[in-house]
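Appendix C reproduces, verbatim, an entry submitted by the partner laboratory led by Prof. M.T., so that reviewers can inspect both the input and the predicted structure.
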Amino acid sequence: MAGKLRIVHCFRSPVGGIFRHVRDLTEAQVAAGHMVGIVCDSTTGGEFEERLFEQMKDMLALGIHRTPMQRHVGAGDLTSARQTYRIIKELRPDVLHGHGAKGGAYARLFGSLLRVSRSRVARLYSPHGGSLHYDENTATGKLFFALEYLMARFTDSLLFVSDYERRTYRRKVGEPPIPNTLVYNGLRATEFEPVTARADAADFLYIGMMRDLKGPDIFIDALAAAAPRLGRAPNAVMVGDGDDLPRYHAQVKRLGLEGNVRFLPPMPAREAFVLAALVVVPSRAEAMPYTVLEALAAARPMIATSVGGIPEIFGSGSPALIRPDPTELAEKMSQALGDLAAYRKLMPDDSTLRARFGADVMAAEIEKAYFAALEK
């Protein structure tokens, strides 16, 4: 099958890496002549996300549709699901691409319902970590992985953003009985232009969602632990929002770091990168985080945890990688800040990053998966 497609991206929360991924994809797909729309939650996101939606709305022929979607399975799901299905049915997609656990479930279930009553709809799923973060030894994990196994029957193609994510799916859910492709997240050419920190920049930057999965608490504990090594309390900027933000404010206060840590609301990553000498990604779990790609493309030195797909960016033996542990992070912070020029040389080179993590490469591979799914 060839030609232009009606593509609908379905996901829950319009924040963080999933939203970034969808924005990049929609931009490339519109440029390729496809008609694109978005269906996502209306209860998450703030002013920053509203500005991003405002920038996108004129280019999306199928529009932006927001309706309440719960993170967890609950009684409100039934009403939410009915409303989401109604929206998707009216959009008449050729391709329904679900992102994350909730978006993936909706895309595959509703795509299957549409196929009962009309022509073929390709049902694609990108986990982006999602339910794969659950422990397979817990009751919750077993339930989600059993559901994932069942949902594979209603999926035409799986798209993984890292080899780690694909290996995790195989281990926790099983070997996919359907086509599956590894497609790394990609950056635009302009994002490979270097960013220089301001003269009054802080020592360290955390940018991301304010939830324990991303490790803000590890970052704050490490700042306190690094003080004796450095002979002073390091300065830091923390950029982001989330339900756990008040707890991190309290943690900073409890550790006596109020004068050293500044909290700022969400902003574009490249604007945040000028605020500190070093970027820190202290996550406990990841799939393929954009923050890491964006910081390295902007030639910012960084420390990151060796979780998820992050080692696929740095190389598994990189000295820039640590465990998600405050003591280990504090030691690496002190070392990096002690000789920043030497530490910069440990980062992956620009040409390797461009070849593997370009938005054009990502969009072309995903489009290929769409057409392959429609031709089945």
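Residues 98 and 107 are 5 Å apart (CA to CA). Additional entries are available on request from the coordinating office.
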